[in-house]
Hints:
By secondary structure, the protein is mainly α. It has helices spanning 8-15, 17-32, 37-45, 64-70, 88-91, 95-114, 126-137, 152-167, 183-190, 199-207, 276-287, 290-294, 314-319, 324-337, 350-370, 393-400, 407-419, 424-437, 443-453, 459-469, 496-501, 521-527, 542-561, 567-576; strands at 49-54, 76-83, 120-123, 141-145, 171-175. Flavin-adenine dinucleotide binds next to helix 13, helix 15, helix 18 and helix 20.
Amino acid sequence: xxxxxxxxxxxxxxxxxxxxxxxxxxxxxxxxxxxxxxxxxxxxxxxxxxxxxxxxxxxxxxxxxxxxxxxxxxxxxxxxxxxxxxxxxxxxxxxxxxxxxxxxxxxxxxxxxxxxxxxxxxxxxxxxxxxxxxxxxxxxxxxxxxxxxxxxxxxxxxxxxxxxxxxxxxxxxxxxxxxxxxxxxxxxxxxxxxxxxxxxxxxxxxxxxxxxxxxxxxxxxxxxxxxxxxxxxxxxxxxxxxxxxxxxxxxxxxxxxxxxxxxxxxxxxxxxxxxxxxxxxxxxxxxxxxxxxxxxxxxxxxxxxxxxxxxxxxxxxxxxxxxxxxxxxxxxxxxxxxxxxxxxxxxxxxxxxxxxxxxxxxxxxxxxxxxxxxxxxxxxxxxxxxxxxxxxxxxxxxxxxxxxxxxxxxxxxxxxxxxxxxxxxxxxxxxxxxxxxxxxxxxxxxxxxxxxxxxxxxxxxxxxxxxxxxxxxxxxxxxxxxxxxxxxxxxxxxxxxxxxxxxxxxxxxxxxxxxxxxxxxxxxxxxxxxxxxxxxxxxxxxxxxxxxxxxxxxxxxxxxxxxxxxxxxxxxxxxxx
Length: 577
Ligand code: FAD
């Protein structure tokens, strides 16, 4: 739905019931006004039955679209989630990610039940199953949280839903609440010059925005109509296990990267579990130590601790179990408590991390406005330089499975597959290693793998950071390259992190834990390490390839300056046509 309505309306909604009533009638009348007078009349006089469609905003707190829907005082109210195997959230997901979603849905259902309501979980293509339920439940009003980044599947889906809802005379309402400010507000503020493509520029833009809107409380029991659910009591329940999800999806299995079965769903070890309840607890815990919050400096956090050295709130923000404004306010509260402490500032502070998030979303939105669906791709993406990456499935597989022969890279990739989360600097290292640093494979492949594996996989953030790390966009200092050996040695000289995630090397002495290929045969033997057998030899020689890659990057940059597409990129495009 293109009509992004200002969030201020919801502050007003909560503050004055008269305004609330008038404003919500006005908002929901947007679609009603396009009806024929007769139909409009019948709609306004008939009973209101409302549906709130949960997509990413899997929470009750600070959910303006949900609040607006309830403000309609519907006779019946249906909070709905649609399990859609083709959505960005599920298309490429691993059992870990699926499990996280199930936990979110279970929690949402439990919290709604405490308020006398419940969650209705449907399955299939929302553009088909939702209209069926509108008819079955006689739905008159529909609300949802807007998807603003321009992710192509969601955009096409929502356009169809709007058309079908129009045809069914349903009053629609969507709200932009995924970011601190609606992205349209940034666009408006930036004006004719367009949105800035640097963090410094974004911080300036952010600084000029009007005050942020208040965080909305979760609805109360009395806000919900009394539900008589007897007939559907045992229907539309949230799934219990990853394997309960719709499968096969309605695309051929050969087109899905990750096909898994029940055996893959056993003994999952996610970094965090899903759901709004745990999200709010995790937020509270992160904010307990006010001095830690006030002095947070991202580059100084460590990626080699077994427990996260940052907040690890990203999966909750990504699925919308936490509202970014709620996190912003919680940080504000902690800063107020941290008296006499010199505070860090954006972009390295904790507030700064939320600014990165909004900035990334704005960039995705802007790129997709110009060329729909280009974000997460090299081609036709105005922010992405054309680099002639190689295409070597064996190297890619070695990277994905943590079998590159570089212990620290392998440990990080194995943490990703076993826990679904890695620290930001770990992401830096493995992304640089896959692309410009060592393996010279396309960042698009790396991004796809992250989308499947990360509990926090996020269309806008993932694309932005992969472009950054591969020096394809937003960051251009390709001559600054992470060493897959030395980068974390100072933080973790005994290689504790490696020993944890790469048990084959657990007995190796500190001296060789980052570089087993340098160890004398007797040392390897004593530690039970057989290079090329139970642990791989390095897949590349870092010293050689990193230099070669820098000159290949220079060529790509020179071609870019001259407005050319590097020959290898142009040839590849011809081959794939
Ligand atoms: P904290 O440092 O505690 O920050 C709090 C929140 O701020 C995060 O939860 C996140 O929402 C936001 N944030 C933090 N760092 C960034 C950043 N660099 N850019 C944008 N927002 C940020 N993050 C995702 O949420 N989803 C992704 O798919 C994703 N893909 C990435 C891919 C690569 C190659 C890289 C280098 C980074 C990626 N990130 C992604 C960004 C970042 O690594 C994670 O958001 C962060 O590590 C999450 O940990 P945290 O919640 O402890 O972060």
